[in-house]
């Protein structure tokens, strides 16, 4: 029976390689490790704002092919934090190649990792990231009460009157025992999983291929093993809590109450674990790292097209061939090459401008964090990424759309003055204000953002900006084809500025009244004439 189940699991893992997960995602738990980790040494940490703008959670659900909750949390951390160098890239690619080509090796590794698949594994980071409970000041009485109980029971056959002492001591112990239950429940999920994590890490580290990741990991494993016997108690507790029908439960509870075993073991273990935080995180990261590499291998295997990008640490050139958005089914690919300039996109709504901006942002993220781009080839700088795409009113704090946009773009201007290259992604800059001030402020801001080796991708409906910014920006556009009463989008990026305006024509084919269309056309001509006269006067 066990053999058949194992054979079935092996076949399942082989078939699922390269495919998306079919499960729910709890991002509150998945992001737990990332949110509590000190990421100060990272080159760049993606903000919640940028993640929202670029549909980061949807990207993660597509990318995540991990087998364990440890790997899932580690992969989330990896995608949110861009590294400052590519020192581990060669090792990553070597291991990804082995895990892809050696099916038996990969499946064996995944079966080990799946032992860390239960939801309570999500609580593992709390052991090395969060403050542990501290024993109260009166805790010195606990070992005394425990010893009193033991001594009284041993002497009871010789001095039966000691039963009068044992009874009140037991009542006090009973109160302490159940006071401690609430403390115990905080760790009954995480500590047993630490034992499993350490055991699995030891097995993985015995593989020659994985030793290179952390040659000194055995030291950390052995340090955790020093607390192993005491932590084993929590595995028993977790099992009993899931199976109250166990015949010895009542007897065990009586023994634990009499001798106050739970509080003594709990606070003893916590004190020891508090000094072993670095070793626990080292083991956690080792296992998560391996699982994330399998996830990347599976992702690549399932893609029709991908590439390993070229990272230019000292340049700001950005280029790509047949780039696509991984979350858009049948996405039309586009190619671009930019040197010493930013990108200004024009085009009508739904033509593909914003999707292309997001495509560039997502590829920069996955290129710098997973060494994987959704393109045939890609060259990019090591740049920080900031965005202003989805902006909304903050009614709770009495902030209008325009004011929220002003604050977001002000942050970009501050970041743009750093010596580190930045990629700024903007959609319809200052669309919350009037035309004259929008164009004026937009030109000034976009000129400022493009300095200091920064790259800007911005979309706009304001054709006037194309003339004002052509020295600093390469002009591209998306366009649609209107035939009879039908609108067709090809979603292809085209060089130059958009020459045709079709907004009124789109109103017309959607059966707007003739008087509305005629008035709109007449006013459009008048405004064009005024704009032309003003440009001549200037």
Automatic annotation (TrEMBL):
One GO CC term, this protein: cytosol
Residues annotated as signal peptide: none
One Pfam assignment: MutS_V
UniProt-listed InterPro entries: DNA_mismatch_repair_MutS_C, MutS, P-loop_NTPase
Record keywords, A-Z: ATP-binding, DNA-binding, Membrane, Nucleotide-binding, Transmembrane, Transmembrane helix
Domain DNA mismatch repair proteins mutS family: 340-525
Listed transmembrane segments: 138-156
Example of a GO MF term: ATP-dependent DNA damage sensor activity
GO biological process: mismatch repair
PANTHER family: DNA MISMATCH REPAIR PROTEIN, DNA MISMATCH REPAIR PROTEIN MUTS FAMILY MEMBER
Protein name: DNA mismatch repair protein MutS
Species whose genome carries this gene: Ancylomarina euxinus
């Amino acid at each position: 029976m066990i053999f058949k189940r194992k054979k079935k699991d092996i076949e399942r893992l082989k078939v699922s390689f390269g495919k998306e997960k079919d499960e729910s995602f709890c991002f509150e738990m998945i992001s737990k490790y990332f949110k509590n980790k000190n990421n100060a040494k990272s080159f760049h940490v993606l903000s919640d704002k940028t993640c929202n703008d670029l549909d980061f959670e949807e990207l993660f659900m597509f990318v995540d092919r991990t087998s364990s909750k440890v790997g899932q949390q580690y992969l989330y951390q990896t995608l949110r934090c861009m590294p400052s160098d590519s020192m581990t890239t060669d090792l990553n690619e070597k291991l990804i190649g082995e895990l892809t080509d050696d099916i038996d090796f990969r499946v064996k590794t995944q079966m080990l990792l799946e032992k860390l698949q239960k939801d309570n594994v999500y609580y593992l980071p709390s052991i090395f990231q969060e403050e542990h409970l501290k024993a109260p000041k009166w805790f010195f009485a606990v070992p005394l009460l425990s010893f009193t109980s033991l001594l009284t029971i041993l002497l009871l056959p010789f001095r039966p009157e000691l039963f009068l002492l044992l009874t009140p001591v037991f009542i006090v112990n009973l109160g302490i025992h159940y006071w401690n239950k609430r403390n115990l429940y905080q760790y009954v999920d995480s500590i047993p999983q630490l034992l499993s994590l350490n055991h699995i890490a030891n097995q993985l580290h015995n593989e020659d291929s994985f030793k290179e990741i952390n040659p000194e990991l055995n030291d950390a494993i052995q340090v955790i093993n020093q607390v192993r016997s005491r932590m084993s108690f929590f595995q028993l507790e977790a099992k009993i809590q899931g199976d109250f029908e166990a015949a010895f439960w009542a007897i065990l509870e009586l023994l634990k109450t009499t001798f106050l075993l739970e509080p003594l073991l709990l606070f003893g273990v916590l004190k020891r674990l508090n000094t072993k935080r670095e070793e626990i995180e080292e083991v956690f990261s080792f296992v998560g790292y391996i699982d994330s590499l399998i996830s990347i291998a599976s992702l690549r295997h399932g893609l029709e097209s991908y590439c390993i990008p070229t990272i230019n640490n000292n340049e700001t050139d950005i280029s790509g061939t047949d780039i696509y958005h991984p979350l858009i089914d049948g996405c039309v690919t586009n190619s671009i090459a930019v040197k010493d300039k930013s990108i200004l996109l024009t085009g009508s709504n739904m033509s593909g401008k914003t999707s292309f901006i997001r495509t560039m942002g997502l590829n920069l993220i996955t290129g710098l964090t997973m060494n994987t781009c959704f393109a045939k080839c890609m060259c990019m700088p090591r740049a920080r990424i900031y965005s202003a795409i989805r902006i909304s009113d903050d009614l709770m704090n009495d902030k209008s759309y325009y004011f929220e946009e002003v604050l977001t773009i002000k942050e970009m201007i501050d970041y743009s003055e750093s010596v580190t290259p930045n990629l700024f992604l903007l959609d319809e800059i200052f669309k919350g204000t009037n035309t004259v001030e929008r164009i004026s402020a937009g030109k000034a801001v976009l000129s400022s953002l493009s300095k200091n080796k920064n790259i800007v991708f911005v979309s706009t409906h304001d054709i006037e900006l194309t003339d004002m910014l052509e020295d600093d920006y390469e002009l591209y556009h998306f366009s649609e084809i209107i035939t009879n009463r039908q609108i067709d989008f090809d979603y292809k990026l085209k060089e130059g500025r958009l020459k045709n305006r079709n907004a009124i024509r789109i109103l017309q084919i959607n059966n707007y009244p003739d008087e509305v269309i005629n008035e709109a056309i007449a006013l459009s001509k008048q405004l064009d004439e005024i704009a032309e006269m003003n440009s001549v006067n200037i």
